[in-house]
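lol forgot to send this yesterday, sorry. struct tokens for the thing we talked abt
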């Protein structure tokens, strides 16, 4: 076995470098304070962030000369709103191109797990292999609490520098109980999921409820896996090994994932050609839709609340797959306001032509084969008494 290289962040990161920090629930948070101190001392570091599901108070973006993210929302809402982190609008499948181009990192700070063959990424792979392929040195936090469930070759040993170790497990995905409206939506949309379907679900209560309420066997081909996949497997309804890039659950999910080859890089999980080559059923939600069926997942007129992420990747792949469906499930109101609007509060995240079926707690709008006027009529019917939000 190749000897392990050790270093400190202060010796691994140089003046003017761009530093990318691995994302997801297994992000290397134990190094955040040290990285912030290095940034404060050098004064000219650039920071690249991905999906930060929970705020990290010890990683201070204000100490960097420039900080950007391609997955705003959740843990980055406050720094994005304050202008300390700039939000780059990009679909997740396009992040490898950015990481080989204007956002190319010199150093990737990442959590890794030790395996007999060498180091691998742990709780998620996401875009991290792209950063390595673009030439980044890996400042590795060795995690003894993360599962080993990645596919593919080990990380190149000549690029890995161990800068710390931790026994802390990845963060847990917060429980999001399903509302009565979500339960009604899921009951309707499950009628569209056939036995043996290849299924993608988004994060949060909707995706977890879909997996919990399924009564037919499915294959999971999804950007993330929630805890409810464990129960799906226990019920004998999980076909084959899931394909994913993020684990978004708790101890049960991580224990179940250990030793399974689940995690793939985004170049695989979000590849539209692969995804659309056979029937794909994509189930996602939205912040709002307009009367033409265009989707906004980024936020309201007042604030960014989420990122584009893989939403347009999976919706487009499902819509173009023969026999598949792109399904958007959304409650008709949020905080007393209709989620159907005459004009979106933010730019379009997913275009209308990549949406096949819209499900609400009041009904279903099957948009396939409809012209513009018919689509609007179908959406209005699905929104029922909520109607269109008044401007």
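and heres what i got for the seq, position by position
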């Amino acid at each position: 076995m190749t000897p392990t290289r050790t270093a400190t962040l202060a010796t691994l990161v140089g003046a003017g470098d761009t530093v990318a920090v691995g994302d997801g629930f297994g992000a290397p948070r134990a190094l955040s304070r040290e990285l912030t101190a290095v940034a404060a001392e050098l004064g000219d570091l650039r920071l690249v962030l991905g999906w930060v599901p929970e705020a990290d108070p010890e990683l201070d973006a204000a100490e960097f000369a420039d900080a950007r993210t391609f997955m705003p929302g959740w843990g980055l809402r406050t720094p994005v709103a304050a202008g300390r982190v700039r939000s780059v609008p990009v679909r997740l499948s396009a992040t490898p191109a950015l990481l080989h181009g204007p956002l190319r990192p010199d150093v990737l700070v990442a959590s890794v797990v030790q395996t007999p063959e060498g180091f691998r990424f742990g709780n998620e792979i996401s875009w991290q292999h792209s950063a390595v392929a673009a030439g980044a040195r890996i400042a590795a936090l060795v995690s003894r609490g993360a599962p080993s469930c990645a596919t593919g070759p080990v990380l190149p040993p000549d690029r890995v520098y161990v800068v710390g170790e931790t026994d802390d497990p990845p963060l847990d995905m917060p429980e999001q109980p399903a509302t009565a409206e979500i339960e009604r939506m899921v009951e309707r949309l499950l009628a569209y999921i056939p036995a043996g379907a290849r299924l993608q679900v988004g994060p949060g209560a909707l995706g977890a409820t879909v997996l919990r309420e399924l009564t037919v066997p499915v294959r999971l081909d999804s950007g993330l896996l929630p805890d409810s996949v464990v129960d799906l497997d226990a019920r004998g309804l999980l076909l084959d090994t899931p394909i994913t890039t993020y684990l978004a659950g708790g101890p049960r999910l991580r224990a179940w994932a250990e030793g399974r080859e689940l995690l793939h890089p985004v170049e695989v999980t979000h590849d539209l050609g692969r995804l659309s080559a056979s029937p794909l059923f994509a189930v996602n939600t939205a912040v709002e839709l307009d009367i033409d069926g265009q989707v906004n997942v980024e936020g309201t007129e007042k604030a960014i609340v989420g990122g584009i992420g893989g939403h347009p990747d999976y919706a487009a792949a499902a819509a173009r797959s023969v026999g598949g469906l792109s399904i958007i499930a959304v409650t008709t109101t949020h905080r007393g306001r209709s989620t159907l609007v005459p004009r979106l509060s933010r730019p379009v995240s997913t275009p209308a032509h990549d949406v096949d079926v819209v499900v609400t707690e009041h009904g279903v709008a099957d948009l396939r084969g409809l012209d513009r006027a018919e689509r609007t009529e179908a959406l209005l019917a699905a929104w029922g008494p909520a109607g269109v939000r008044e401007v």
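The chain has a mean pLDDT of 96. anyway ping me if u want another try
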